[in-house]
Write a structure and sequence with these properties.
Chain lengths: 480, 41
């Protein structure tokens, strides 16, 4: 499939390169999720970044395979172990006509810790010690130790003008007053859970985009989104549900586009001394947290039939995962075997751990984050029932799930994670590193997992400037 | 590997759909739908 996608991508690129720029009027896209705010420093959510990058450019950009490419910075280099220098793109203007320069980038970096959104963007600035404007087109960033992944982190650094002001409020972005970027589209209007309306930036530094007017319409319900396309209310939709894929692929009035993704559905069992939602046997809360026992976690893992998840539940739109990194990414290893499915061994481990008849556990997932999240959630609950577990699976809308997950209210969750920066330090630093708010590690470690040995390996890899060394260190991680 | 701090299950693929012969697009591995990567046919 990767080959197919790659060929398709090359063909598309060739098509785009060969064809003269075609201008058109209106594009209406039906999307499963839209932004939660127009402030680009509000949340790390992918749906947020996806929407806001139309209005705001990032310092560094990525291509369709997440390889770094110039954004507002045309080049960058590490000038010593703890200093990165970025050269700015000249001649760029904000939508209000003001000039872009390095001061705006410095301001944007320094604003991020000041914004108190639900999913802190400090994930992307955790290595920043200080920022210096050398001249209007040159920025130097001093890091807390070696930080070879800083340019990758800055693919999520959205740049707003200095005039935004540190005190700018969420409401001022949402109204459009502060929604001023350098991106290919300018902001027109936004209704939460509704339409984000955009207008072509004819003076965009990378060339004027094809569409004069773009509306990104949030249609969370899968069936409604498909119906909107079929009825002509929208021109395109994302996240075609697995259950509709084959029929839509075979419908001559429609065209489908398929791609591998970086998103992996991961289960996170809480290993805290006291689990947030009680685990019960025969209706009685057990002493201690059974999930702290590695045998129990192994049993849960062994009871997952990933082939069934892919081929039956997701109708073939996926691949079994055996690690947290997608194939080909920095930090991926081909030395790991496929995960075993062995229900008998799983039962034996559970019995050995003292739960021969299983237990009752809450299991919480999203139902609108990525395609298939709700159905995979339900399927996992059924698979674990073969161990004797009573699993109370609950698939929730992200607006409910994410704030509660951030408050660490769930005992066991499943959610999608994408290695958006294309390298492992981002993922391991956020998900499995011991939580350390001050240093910006473990921002998304909600399970209480802590392994000092892993932290050391992770830190060592993240600080190596030589990719070969970092890759070698990352392969030693014990967490996935 | 041994800790099962997180248990990966499946890597997802993404599907977009449009009316036939109206648009072309470059699918992205980050699942983003970028209007400026969509062109009229």
């Amino acid at each position: 499939m990767l080959k197919t996608t790659l060929l398709s991508s090359i063909a598309s690129l060739a098509l785009l390169a060969a064809a003269p720029a075609v201008m058109a009027q209106d594009l209406m896209i039906g999307l499963r999720a839209g932004p939660d705010s127009i402030d680009p420093h509000w949340s790390t959510l992918g749906s947020q970044a996806e929407a806001l990058r139309h209005v705001f450019d990032t310092l560094v950009d990525v291509d369709d395979k997440l390889q770094l490419k110039p954004g507002l910075a045309v080049s960058w280099e590490a000038i010593d172990d703890t200093t990165w220098e970025f050269k700015m793109r000249e001649g760029v203007k904000f939508h209000d006509g003001s000039d872009f320069d390095a001061e705006d980038v410095k301001f944007s970096i320094e604003r991020i810790p000041e914004v108190t959104g639900p999913m802190p963007m400090t994930l992307y600035t955790k290595y920043v010690e200080s920022v210096e404007v050398v001249d209007p087109m040159t920025l130097r960033v001093t890091t807390k130790g070696m930080a070879p992944s800083l340019p990758n982190d800055f693919t999520r650094l959205f740049v707003v003008p200095t005039e935004t002001g540190m005190e700018a409020r969420n409401e001022e972005f949402n109204s459009g007053e502060k929604a001023i970027g350098t991106g290919p589209y300018s902001f027109v209007s936004w209704q939460p859970k509704g339409d984000l309306v955009l207008k072509r930036n004819a003076d965009y530094w990378d060339g004027a985009p094809a569409w004069e007017n773009v509306t990104r319409r949030e249609i969370a319900d899968d069936a409604a989104r498909v119906a909107a396309l079929k009825s002509g209310q929208v021109d395109m939709i994302n996240y075609v549900p697995a259950t509709d894929y084959l029929s839509m692929k075979n419908d001559s009035s429609l065209e489908t586009f398929v791609s591998d993704s970086i998103y992996i559905l991961n289960i996170a069992p809480s290993v805290k001394d006291e689990e947030p939602q009680p685990i019960k046997v025969n209706g009685v809360e057990v002493d201690g947290n059974p999930l702290q026992d590695l045998r129990v976690r192994k049993a849960l893992d062994l009871a997952i039939n990933r082939e069934v998840l892919v081929n039956v539940v997701l109708e073939g739109l996926g691949k079994p995962a055996n690690q947290l990194m997608p194939e080909g990414f920095f930090g991926y290893t081909d030395k790991l075997d496929a995960r075993e499915y062995d229900i008998e061994q799983a039962k034996a481990l559970l019995t050995e751990a003292g739960y021969p008849d299983g237990f009752e556990i809450d299991f919480t997932c999203t139902n609108n984050r990525v395609p298939g999240d709700a159905v995979v959630c339900e399927a996992l609950a059924q698979m674990w029932s073969r161990l004797g577990l009573k699993v109370n699976a609950q698939a929730l809308n992200g607006t409910v799930y994410f704030p509660a997950a951030a408050r660490e209210e769930y005992t066991m969750t499943m959610s999608a994670w994408g290695t958006l920066t294309g390298e492992a330090a981002y993922t391991y630093g956020a998900l499995t590193h011991t939580k350390d708010a001050e240093k910006g590690f473990g921002n998304f470690n909600r399970s209480g997992y802590s392994n000092p040995e892993f932290d050391k390996v992770s830190a060592k890899a993240a600080r190596r400037l030589t990719p070969k060394h970092a890759r070698s260190s990352m392969k030693k991680h014990p967490t996935s | 590997m041994e800790d099962r701090a997180l248990i990966p299950t499946v890597i997802l693929q993404t599907v977009w759909a449009a009316k036939a012969d109206t648009l072309d697009m470059l699918p992205r591995v980050d699942q983003e739908t970028r209007a400026y990567a969509i062109t009229p046919e």
